[in-house]
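Sat 14:20. Reprocessing the chain from the morning session after the first attempt stalled halfway. Input below, unchanged.
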Amino acid sequence: MKVLHIQGFSLNRRRRKGSMVILLVLAVGTAAFFTANKFAQDSLIEYRIAMQQADGFKAHGLAKAGFLGGLGALKKIPEEILYQSGIAFDPPPIPLGGGVIYYSMNPEDGKVNINSLVKLYDDEPNERMIEIVSRMFTQFGIKREMIFPIIDWIDMNNQEMGGGAEVYYYSRLKPPRKIKNAPMYSLSELLSVKGFDRKIVYESLKPEDYDKNFSSDFQTDEEKALISDKDFVLSNNVTAYLPFGDSYDDRININSAPYHVLMSLSDFMTKPAALKILKLKIQKNGYIKEMKDLEQEPEFQIKTMGELTLYKELAGEGTDVSGGRIKTKGEIYKIIGVGIIKDKIVRRVTGIFDLPNDTMLYYTED
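Finished this time. Tokens:
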């Protein structure tokens, strides 16, 4: 009886060991399964990240190729041909390398360079540009005093101008902000200036009752082409770049100037005169080559100050202002190259190029 009892005990012990082994195997298998599954999930995530990085790299390559294509076209094709071609500044997208590539070129000197509110050579306010920007701000419903924070942001002194803001204002913000006291490299810097935000700079400032008061039913085709919704966006009328070296030219290129810029050139500028510029461009196949083309037009013969006509005031003839306020040849261009992969991976390369000096004034990749 004792032997049988020992044998039964041994048998039960072996059974318990077998069960423990089975449980241990199951535990190890389960752990291995979850480990493998976690490894597979992590590997899949890493694979997707790698693929996104690869697609991003490809999109960046396409964007850079588009940018260089635009730059090459700008250097090799005469400006007159670019204007007359109709699509050279903004050609349609091209499928390439499993994605889409395109570029655009925008003449920046048809806009007002807000850096020119301060004369770079002596750090003094530029009264002529202050007048021009004041007229523009009035058209957009922006208070004239908003000019002064821009001047304070750019000039190198610490003395507040009008309702401007210097280091004392920016140091008390939460979080505090460092004032630049130097020219802006890009318009996006304007968002850091007192009183300005994305809505003012990049969204429409079109009055709510504008369409009601200026119905297109009563406009000519030229008037409809003269002004569009995009003209009411401040960023389409102003720019910011640092000129090359000692070059300083704040004249406005009338071949690319939008409506509100044209209307800001003089207190005596009229809508018929702005329309005449548009009509002349149409008559001359999209490009006014010589300022003299405006001289004999009745709209530019109206008297301004003294014996001056609007034409002479704008062209600088008979005045003490060297070079006048307008020009017909573009010199500064913004070039944007865009690459798109799978309709969702987008990369952009942007630069501001000084054509006469063959110099890139600003360059960024995103």
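The chain is about 40% helix and 15% strand.
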